[in-house]
Amino acid sequence: MIPEAHVFHEMSGRLRLKIPSQKGDAAYFSALRERLFECPRVEEVCVNPQTASALILHNCDAKTIFQYAKKNELFMRRRPARARKALFGTVADVFHSYNRSIRNLTGGEVDIPSLAFLTLVVSGIYQIARGNLVMPAWYTAFYYALGVFSRGHVEEFDEGENLLEDFDDADGDGD
């Protein structure tokens, strides 16, 4: 069975692999070093059996090295498992889908934040009209409406483009 190699880091001309199943196997890493030198355009190979790592310096693309290693049964690249989404990400995807549907139905005029904003404003007005001026009923609805409105239309703001200018102005150096 061909051992699996995990890419620890990869950059132009440099590839570090971890081969956990061969940890401590000096004979394997010695043979790996010798055989990788036979790969075209591999310039240097440093191995460490204690850490199960191999550092490969090269002037080719990493794909060439992985193909060579697989063909010669040295190791196979193990792709990392896809990260699972957190609950918030899943819920956000559902709301994005609903939001897209609402926008399509209304020709882009209304979205979920707009609906929430309008619902909260109407709720506040309704509480005032009923004579219920107790602060939390209508005031809270308006407060939440403002929060929904400001978060729902973030893409319309400068997205922090002027933030550095604000900090520069605040430090008073007069640039």
From TrEMBL:
Protein name: Uncharacterized protein
Annotated source species: Desulfomonile tiedjei
Organismal lineage: Bacteria, Pseudomonadati, Thermodesulfobacteriota, Desulfomonilia, Desulfomonilales
